[in-house]
Structure formats: structure tokens, C-alpha cells
């Protein structure tokens, strides 16, 4: 159990930005909002999964929408309290603790902000161990946890209650359509779960992992050491490319930032090219020539993380631009996403790449995402 500090916010924002693999919203903006909440006198306690009571009522809090829109359309600050209050009124009982839907990007900060403003503890874990673009891509929903009841609000004060959705795919479709009508960003509290369900299916200790990862990068930067080594020492995985962005194709479609990028190799990767497809998050990385994708180097559900070469800052999809120099890392995902059942939901085919065969990265016991 630990209490969040401003230093923790900086570290988690950095670490969650890396784990977000390009998505999850701007960790910088999420960190700014969280620091403001702490400076207003609020506090939040992070509790281990093991300390959650089986009968506790827990809900996730997280943002839905296109990261490109989230940078321009800021929240009003009242969404967290509004969405929790709406859900509590609907179910007729108090929510005991807040959980994280995805540890990536700004969505690592959303439950912390909600916990601080509501006075509720936040569980040290999440349902992805990274960020994913769609609701059904969750260790909870893959394992049969109900998606509803749920609540969704926007910055204008609109509030929607989902009483019953028959599948997580149905929830994604209805919520996404409504999110688009809300301006492509909305805050969701969902689902209402028992403590037993959260303990059984969450990826444990991911807020601690994000903090440790971010602190390792910040320490490496201060000591002028390799931030690539710092990331890999915490997460496992490997560097798969280093170069300069020479082309970015990106559009906001149906509430997602979709597109592709082309990276020209530098240093030991000179004369090579890497193609990466993304849907909010980086999905598949191919190494080939300028015009041909070539060999698959990494794919979902493993993480494809992009860092700015001079600072180690994580690069999110809304920041992609010509000339940016980057290091690209591949990090092993949680074992919970490596089952046959999970791969049907989070594997390459689920994103429209049936020709890509997922080849899991090797994992080191006791290291990285559990």
C-alpha cells in the first residue's frame, strides 16, 4: 500500500506512456491534471490486489476516444465525480475502490484522479498490462466478467447509463457510437465488479510497474545513461529498430486514430525500413524496404513501444511527425493475453491482419508484465 506523490505522477506518466504503445491518451496532459488534483489537497492510496475484499464493489474508470482529439478537447475536471456518482445511484450502493482499465498513457491517471476526488482507494493492477483501442480487449471481459452496469459522461454534462449489454463487443459498439456523438472523448466507469473477479482476472502490480519503469528512464536521463537499457531492464524485450520517421498517414475514423508510419533506419539499421500500423496503439511492425513491408518483427498483443531518441520520452500516435528520431522496442505482454481464447480478441487477426501470425517474445521470469 502506498500514497501517490507528485514524483510518482511524473514516473507513472513516463512509464505508462511507454506501456501505452502509442495510445491511452497523452500521459503529459494526464499527469498535469493529476498534479493539480494533488495540489488542491486531495490524496489517493494505491492498494495491492491481495488486500481487496472478495465482496467489495469495484469499477474501472477510463477515457474512451481518439487520442488526437483528446489533446485538443480538454476535460472540465468534474467528469470523474459525475461518472462515479451516476453509477452509484444506478446500482444503489457505494463503489468501494477504483480500478484501472488500461495502464497505458493518460488512462493510467484517470483512476488515480477519480480515486483522489472521490476519496476511494485505487487497485494496483489493470485489465491489459498495456493499452488497447477497444473495450472487449480486456482480461476481465475475455474471461466472462459482465461489462455492465456502466456509466459514461462527457465534459458538457451529458450522462448515459448502460443497464445491460449482452457482450463486450456490443458494449464497444454502442459506447463508441455515443462517444463519437460526444465529440470523440468521454469518461466511462465500467463495469461494477466484485473484488473476487478483479483479483482473479486483473494483471497485477501494473501501476507499480509503470512507476518503476518511468523512474528508471528518469534516472537514466539524469545520469546520461542509456534509457533503452533502462526500459529493457525493467520490462524485458528488445530493441527492434532505430531511425527517423519519413512518412505518417493518420486519420481520425469512427473514434480512433488509424494509420501507418514509415521509419528509415539510422546507425546499425541504416538502409533498412520499418513499417508500423496503428489503431490508437501500435499493432504490427514489419522490417523491409521503403515500398515493401517485409518480415513481421513484432505484433499485438506484445507491445511495440516508441521512444524519442534524445530524451526517452514515449511517442504517442498524436505526436507522430516527419523527422522525429525514435528507438522502437518490443516488450512481452502479459501471459493472460497469450491463450488461444485471448488471441481471438487481441491477436493480429482481430485488428484486420489475419496473415500475421503472432510469435510471442520470450519472457524472463520475475521481469516485466506479469
Question: Mind explaining what this structure looks like?
Answer:
By secondary structure, the protein is of the alpha+beta class. It has 2 domains: 203 residues, CV3147-like domain (CV3147-like fold); 117 residues, CV3147-like, CATH 2.40.390. 30% of the residues lie in helices and 28% in strands. Strands 1, 2, 3, 4, 5, 6, 7, 8 and 9 form a 9-stranded mixed β-sheet that branches. The longest helix is centred in the middle third of the chain and has 17 residues. The two termini are 19 Å apart.
Helix count, DSSP H or I runs of 4 or more residues = 11
What is the CATH homologous superfamily assignment of the largest domain? Answer: CV3147-like domain
- Alpha-carbon distance between the termini? 19 Å
Helix content: 25-40%
Give the helix/strand class.
alpha+beta
CATH topology of the largest domain: CV3147-like fold
What oligomeric state is this?
A: single chain
The largest pleated sheet is described as: 9 strands, mixed
Number of strands: 16
Strand content: 25-35%
Instruction: Report the C-alpha radius of gyration, rounded.
Output: 19 Å
CATH domain class name of the largest domain: Alpha Beta
Amino acid at each position: 500500500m502506498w500514497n501517490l506523490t507528485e514524483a510518482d505522477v511524473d514516473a507513472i506518466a513516463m512509464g505508462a506512456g511507454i506501456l501505452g504503445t502509442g495510445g491511452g491518451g497523452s500521459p503529459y496532459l494526464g499527469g498535469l491534471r493529476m498534479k493539480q488534483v494533488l495540489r488542491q489537497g486531495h490524496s489517493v492510496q494505491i492498494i495491492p490486489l491481495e488486500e481487496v475484499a472478495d465482496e467489495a464493489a469495484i469499477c474501472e474508470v477510463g477515457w474512451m476516444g481518439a487520442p488526437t482529439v483528446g489533446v485538443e478537447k480538454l476535460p472540465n475536471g468534474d467528469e470523474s465525480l459525475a461518472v462515479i456518482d451516476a453509477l452509484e445511484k444506478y446500482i444503489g450502493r457505494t463503489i468501494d475502490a477504483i480500478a484501472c482499465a488500461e495502464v497505458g498513457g493518460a488512462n493510467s491517471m484517470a483512476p488515480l484522479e477519480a480515486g483522489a476526488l472521490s476519496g476511494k482507494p485505487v487497485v494496483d493492477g489493470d485489465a491489459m498490462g498495456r493499452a488497447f483501442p477497444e473495450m472487449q480487449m480486456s482480461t476481465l471481459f475475455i474471461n466472462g466478467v459482465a461489462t455492465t452496469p456502466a456509466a459514461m459522461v462527457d465534459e458538457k454534462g451529458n450522462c448515459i447509463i448502460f443497464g445491460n449489454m449482452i457482450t463486450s463487443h456490443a458494449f464497444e459498439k454502442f459506447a463508441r457510437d455515443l462517444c463519437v456523438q460526444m465529440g470523440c472523448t468521454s469518461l466511462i466507469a465500467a463495469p461494477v465488479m466484485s473484488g473476487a473477479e478483479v483479483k482473479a482476472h486483473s494483471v497485477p502490480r501494473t501501476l507499480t510497474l509503470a512507476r518503476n519503469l518511468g523512474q528508471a528512464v528518469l534516472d537514466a536521463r539524469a545520469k546520461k545513461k542509456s534509457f533503452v537499457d533502462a526500459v529493457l531492464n525493467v520490462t524485458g524485450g528488445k530493441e527492434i529498430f532505430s531511425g527517423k520517421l519519413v512518412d505518417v498517414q493518420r486519420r481520425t475514423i469512427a473514434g480512433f486514430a488509424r494509420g501507418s508510419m514509415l521509419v528509415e533506419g539510422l546507425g546499425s539499421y541504416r538502409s533498412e525500413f520499418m513499417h508500423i500500423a496503428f489503431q490508437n496503439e501500435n499493432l504490427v511492425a514489419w522490417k523491409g524496404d521503403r515500398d515493401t513491408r517485409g518480415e513481421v518483427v513484432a505484433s499485438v498483443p506484445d507491445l511495440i513501444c516508441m521512444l524519442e531518441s534524445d530524451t526517452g520520452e514515449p511517442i504517442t500516435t498524436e505526436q507522430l511527425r516527419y523527422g522525429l528520431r525514435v528507438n522502437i522496442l518490443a516488450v512481452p505482454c502479459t501471459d493472460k493475453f497469450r491463450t488461444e481464447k485471448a488471441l481471438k480478441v487481441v491477436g493480429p487477426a482481430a485488428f484486420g491482419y489475419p496473415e500475421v501470425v503472432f510469435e510471442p517474445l520470450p519472457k524472463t521470469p520475475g521481469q516485466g508484465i506479469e
